[in-house]
Fold this sequence. Notes:
Layout: E1 2-4, H1 5-14, E2 30-34, E3 37-41, E4 45-50, E5 58-61, H2 62-69, E6 77-83, E7 86-91, E8 94-99, E9 114-121, H3 122-132, E10 147-152, E11 157-161, E12 165-170, E13 179-184, H4 185-197, H5 208-213, E14 217-223, E15 227-233, E16 236-241, H6 250-253, E17 261-266, H7 267-282, E18 287-293, E19 296-302, E20 307-313, E21 316-318, E22 323-327, H8 328-335, E23 341-346, E24 353-357, E25 362-365
Antiparallel strand pairs: 1-6, 2-3, 2-5, 3-4, 4-16, 6-7, 7-8, 9-14, 10-11, 10-13, 11-12, 12-25, 14-15, 15-16, 17-21, 17-23, 18-19, 18-22, 19-20, 23-24, 24-25
Helix pairs in contact: 3-4, 7-8
Amino acid sequence: xxxxxxxxxxxxxxxxxxxxxxxxxxxxxxxxxxxxxxxxxxxxxxxxxxxxxxxxxxxxxxxxxxxxxxxxxxxxxxxxxxxxxxxxxxxxxxxxxxxxxxxxxxxxxxxxxxxxxxxxxxxxxxxxxxxxxxxxxxxxxxxxxxxxxxxxxxxxxxxxxxxxxxxxxxxxxxxxxxxxxxxxxxxxxxxxxxxxxxxxxxxxxxxxxxxxxxxxxxxxxxxxxxxxxxxxxxxxxxxxxxxxxxxxxxxxxxxxxxxxxxxxxxxxxxxxxxxxxxxxxxxxxxxxxxxxxxxxxxxxxxxxxxxxxxxxxxxxxxxxxxxxxxxxxxxxxxxxxxxxxxxxxxxxxxxxxxxxxxxxxxxxxxxxxxxxxxxxxxxxxxxxxxxxxxxxxxxxxxxxxxxxxxxxxxxxxxxxxxxx
Length: 420
């Protein structure tokens, strides 16, 4: 195979998310070059790129070759050939040899039998998947929660959740078949990466403004074997192995009744107030109290001997009751980096509070139980959260409260310097 260095670097960059750094199957650290294609897989998704220059079959040790090519001029013509169990690379100013695994040991490209397919606006579909991803569960106890759910049909809906909060997006797009698919979290990351790395194909015969404003069409196909294929360009596609099982009824969890409380506020105001009371909240199961009255919001947290409160102005307020308790971690994570106005609505009881911002999905957060008695209780468990397991969450009987959320992993301690 003869190929320009810059072209090969770009191709390897596109498949990067599907080449695992750590794996129990070392063969996956290679890219397969065969039949005019280059492909890589992490067993959840496979990126396939047409490479007309391919004239032989071999495995390319991804990390080693890519690192070496960083220091080879992009304009160089690279010769790549398998020989005597090794992979040999050469260019005008140098050469390299790497041990090569056997092609037959690499996972085969799955047979993809198209059941139905359609063109979808990639500029709304892929970002919607990405915006729902942070709300997917990270624990592996329930695999159906470890991904993003797509309900194909008309319209297309996207959702993700961990049993205590969820994201919901309804897209102005349709698919000819009604089908519910769960995309693994890693596969969503791959789709986002591949879309960012593949060039936009401009429409033919149009003026410059039409080309710039043209929608990024992607071809989405479903097969009868629980697989999904996304074609980003004529020569780049991703095949995703879907998570088996039925997801929770995410789209039924969204409250349909008219809210009994609806308030609007600036995201930055509430985030500052929540962070101000977060220390005390974490001492009492992560509960933050929100109270709304006379155009002002009160954010507070308390224990048996401490209480911190902060006030924020409201843009609008409608309805009663005017108070509820939410988890400090979930609130902080939702409000982070948001600008402008957020609308919060609530239908009361154990139904989730709904948050909506102009840039992002509708997010539902389960309320927590709190003792609203103004007198401080001598009992240390004054604010008692019901931490039901996510497995018990259903559309008809959602979890009564959210557990304390951990929004960041503890930093690793630096290794002590060895004594001389």
